[in-house]
Amino acid sequence: MVTDALPRDLLLAFAALIAVLIVVGAWILLKREEIADAAISWLKSHELESRYIELDGERMHYVQAGRGPHLVFLHGIGASLFTWRHLLPVFAEDHTVTAIDLPGFGRSHKARRGDYGLDAQRDRVLRILDALGIPDATLVGSSMGGAIALWMACQSPERFKKVATLAPATDPKIVPIKSAQLLRLAPYAHRTINRRTMRWIYGRVVARPELVVPETIDAYLEPYLDEGISAQSFLAAARLLADRRMPDCFAATKSRVLIVGGERDRLVRVPSLRRLHRVIPDATLVLHPTAGHHMMEDEPEWTADALRRFLES
């Protein structure tokens, strides 16, 4: 009887474990759906629609709205087009606004061994704009997106006559270790990304603590609820930020450039913005005294006014 009872007990324990795993799995799926809903609810509230375009077999995510001269928005590392939620409705009133989830980020395609360096990202975004039928545009880039926008303008100044950069990440010192070393951290980074760590990260890119609310945290977290490929793409993109050609390579820029910074930015400091300002021949530097790295979230009205003045000048 003892020998009969033991397998039965093990079977019951195993069945209980399976039941627990099913319940936990269902809870995780529900949480992921809840977080995913938070990531797209802002699109619905502004009557914006998620769109995809296929590029060499890879799906790229973007939104587009409005009518008029083209404005193209490029977000920073680790972010997504959600970053632009306050500005898109404002400029869609008299522009065709296009916000792209950069390759490797948001809901765009991510490759485990993808090249997310400065040249590769510039070339991909140019091809996306070609595929979308955008012949010329004013580029608006945040952080890493600012560096990509400037590099695009260096190649095609006649196509991008104006470039607005918000806290452009053009100082390679921002990445203290080699990108190859960062990639080795990918498995560990993925395990640490959750609401708590995302709250801490977001709290460093904005200067106003009241902006750190659950809905926003979930929207930024949503792309990272995968099996680790998003974290790997993030770390691979550090190669772009560490590109030692910057900022001197932007001296070739013939476009008019606006550099917008926040004096409370803890990531891209004012001295690096001043250095970029000295490098680019036709550049204007504007600083907000209390904004952080994401001034489009800290001070959306002020940022919109600064962009509007640049567009109309």
CATH superfamily membership of the largest domain, which one?
Answer: Alpha/Beta hydrolase fold, catalytic domain
Q: Determine Rg (CA atoms, Å).
A: 22 Å
Determine the CATH topology of the largest domain.
Rossmann fold
What would CATH call the architecture of the largest domain? Answer: 3-Layer(aba) Sandwich
CATH class identity of the largest domain: Alpha Beta
Encode the helix/strand succession as letters.
HEEEHEHEHEHHHHHEHEHH
Whole-number count of domains: 2
**pLDDT averaged over residues:** 86
Give the helix proportion (percent range): 40-55%
How much of the residues is beta strand, in percent? Answer: 15-25%
Q: Largest sheet at a glance?
A: 8 strands, mixed
Would you count the extended β strands for me?
A: 8
Helical segment count = 12
- Class by SSE composition: alpha/beta
How does this model look, in words?
The structure is a single chain. By secondary structure, the protein is an alpha/beta fold. The chain has two domains: 1-45; 48-312, Rossmann fold (3-Layer(aba) Sandwich), CATH 3.40.50.1820. Helices cover 46% and strands 15% of the residues. It contains twelve helices and eight strands. The chain has helices spanning 2-45, 88-91, 118-131, 144-155, 179-183, 186-192, 195-205, 214-221, 229-241, 270-279, 295-298, 300-312; strands spanning 51-55, 58-66, 70-74, 96-100, 138-142, 162-166, 256-262, 283-288. Strand 5 (138-142), helix 4 (144-155) and strand 6 form a beta-alpha-beta unit. Helix 1 (2-45) packs across helix 8 (214-221). It is globular, with a radius of gyration of 22 Å.
